[in-house]
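Query form — protein GRAM domain-containing protein

QUESTION: What is the three-dimensional structure of this chain?
INPUT:
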Amino acid sequence: MRILRKAIGVIFGLISLFFILAIFVNEIDFGSDYGLVLIFLSIAALFGYLSYRSFSKNKRSHKEIDPMQEILENTSLTEETLEELKNGTLPVVYTDKLILQPDEVCHYYTNATRLITKNRVIGYSGGSGGASFRIAKGVTLRTGSYKGTPIRGDVTEESPGQLFITNKRLIFVAPKNNFQTSLDKITAIELYRDGISLQDNKSNYAMLLVAPEYPYTIIKSLAEQAS
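ANSWER: The structure tokens for GRAM domain-containing protein are given below.
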């Protein structure tokens, strides 16, 4: 629809330009054809205005989000603690959402979404709802229904929450699929463009994160120290 509106605006713009040029070369009598010229100029102006508004709105909608603002809004980092982290110093942040153990401090927390992929039955191939056959007066034979061959596929479940990194534990607080693990039990961690995945001796954890390079660096450093 937006492309069509732009195309129509261009067409009417060209038509209005033709009429303006025709007036200047006296091919159209401005006095006798004034109404016709005015109509085309008005329509061209209308579509030109609508095309401009559409372009401006589209440009605003594609405006890039300030990466720094996104980090400050979704993580525990401030401009000061971010500078500490860049200089190799782990910041200590306050949170009232955790019950910390003795000598335990929180270094970082961030909004996160845990991803859990499971292989499940997503449909059936073939199958029947059953059928009834009258074989004699008052006697009906009914066949049983069956679902057919199950079709399996990977289904990814998303669980939003908050990820906390302390000097002892990694804690994901969420209404569903929450977890915690000790840093000394982490055996592998991998960084992605939009998140991280890690594993301990029992399970694998994949999470979507804003600025994943920061929690990745912190977890990797603390896990290496704890092992």
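ADDITIONAL NOTE: The chain has two domains: 2-61, 68-119+154-226.
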